């Protein structure tokens, strides 16, 4: 038996479950699902992501394919079945080397789960608000997972677009799917969703991104306890500088590319679930909140640009590359909580299985003017 965190009957969304039995031998009787409820959709998406964590744990602990496996309860409880397992080999320098110094490792980083309609009156009926498939991506697991560490480094350097997991995930998604991910997995889901909106078919896939990571100066500003007035001033100066640089001859092509990108991404509004005290996703919180303060500022278009992207663009041989900062989104719905005391901390996935009233969620939709 795994830890309590891996057992659905113990750690699942209790407000959606009716259970019997004891804590040591819990028995789930029913799970009530309302697909029209944003709370239920959030909890289900988080449960499926949790299932991918548990499936990788099942694999590493020798439970996969046995009666001791725990992952399936995290999706079967909501009438999903495993359609495909997403896995790939690690492409870090230790696993891919000409001297074969270490065996190449592989891991499960996600799953494609198919919703099975429930029987009603002898017929299978699909709720119109339910997805046909959900593609779920897990986040980082213990340091022994080299692939996770390598993917995190690539994300830190904004080179995740060429990472094997990201490349492997994009063609696996079809039109009638939802995307869901936590932490590193949220970054993969975000990349896939952006890719689907910018290809020729422009597929708008609902996305549930839990604690999405974004590298920014926000943690430093918070650590230095920079006052809000000074913070707003710094961001205004930064956006003004970006706007001026974007108007130069050398960087004007990048600005035009970002204008086109924002136009294509405008209809897509992923659901971002963030905690005010989670250092990993402070970048997203600051970006959208500070951009909102710039709506009537003439340098607003500077919010579409990144200084790091500018430097990379100036030194890139291929000026048509798409390696832009993932937080540069025209639209998003930000679900923010500040509730403390959850045993998994502000970056934990299981906090998102709680009901709305416990999280005190405050959703806000952000749209770039004209989007």
List the helices and strands and how they pair.
Blueprint: H1 8-11, E1 17-21, E2 26-31, H2 38-60, H3 73-76, E3 80-89, E4 106-115, E5 118-120, E6 123-125, E7 133-137, H4 146-156, H5 164-169, E8 177-182, H6 184-198, E9 207-210, H7 218-223, H8 228-246, H9 252-265, E10 271-275, H10 282-292, H11 307-315, E11 331-337, H12 356-359, E12 362-367
Parallel strand pairs: 7-8, 8-9, 9-10, 10-11
Antiparallel strand pairs: 1-2, 3-4, 4-7, 5-6, 11-12
Structure characterization notes:
The protein has 371 residues and is of the alpha/beta class. The chain has a domain at 4-210. Helices cover 34% and strands 19% of the residues. The chain contains 12 helices and 12 strands. The strands form 3 sheets. Strands 3-4-7-8-9-10-11-12 form an 8-stranded mixed sheet, with helices on both faces. α6 (184-198) links the parallel β8 and β9. The chain starts with 7 loop residues before the first helix and ends with a strand. This is Fungal lipase-like domain-containing protein.
């Amino acid at each position: 038996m795994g830890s309590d965190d891996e057992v659905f009957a113990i750690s699942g969304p209790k407000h959606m479950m009716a259970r019997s039995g004891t804590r040591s031998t819990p028995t789930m009787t029913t799970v009530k699902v309302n697909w029209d409820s944003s709370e239920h959709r959030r909890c289900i998406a988080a449960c499926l992501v949790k299932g991918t964590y548990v499936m990788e744990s099942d694999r590493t602990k020798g439970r996969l394919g046995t009666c001791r496996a725990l992952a399936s309860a995290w999706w079967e409880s909501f009438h999903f079945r495993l359609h495909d397992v997403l896995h790939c080999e690690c492409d870090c320098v230790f696993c891919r080397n000409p001297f074969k110094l270490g065996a190449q490792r592989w891991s499960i980083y996600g799953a494609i789960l198919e919703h099975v309609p429930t029987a009603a009156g002898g017929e299978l009926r699909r709720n119109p608000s339910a997805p046909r498939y959900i593609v779920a991506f897990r986040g980082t697991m213990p340091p022994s997972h080299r692939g996770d560490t390598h993917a995190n480094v690539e994300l830190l350097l904004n080179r995740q677009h060429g990472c094997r997991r990201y490349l492997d995930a994009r063609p696996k998604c079809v039109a009638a799917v939802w995307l869901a991910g936590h932490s590193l997995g949220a970054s993969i889901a975000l990349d896939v969703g952006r890719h689907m909106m910018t290809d020729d078919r422009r597929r708008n896939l609902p996305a549930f991104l839990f604690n999405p990571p974004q590298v920014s100066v926000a943690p430093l500003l918070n650590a230095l306890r920079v006052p809000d007035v000074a913070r707003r001033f710094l961001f205004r100066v930064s956006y003004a500088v970006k706007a001026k640089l974007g108007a130069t001859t050398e960087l004007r092509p990048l600005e035009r590319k970002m204008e086109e990108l924002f136009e294509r991404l405008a209809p897509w509004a992923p659901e971002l679930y963030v905690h005010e005290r989670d250092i990993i996703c402070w970048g997203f919180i600051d970006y959208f909140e500070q951009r909102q303060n710039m709506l009537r500022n003439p340098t607003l278009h500077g919010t579409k640009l990144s200084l790091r992207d500018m430097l990379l663009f100036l030194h890139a041989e291929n000026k048509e590359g798409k390696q832009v900062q993932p937080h540069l989104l025209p639209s998003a719905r930000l679900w923010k909580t500040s509730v403390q005391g959850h045993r998994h901390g502000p970056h934990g996935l299981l906090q998102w299985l709680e009901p709305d009233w416990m999280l005190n969620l405050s959703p806000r939709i952000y749209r770039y003017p004209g989007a």
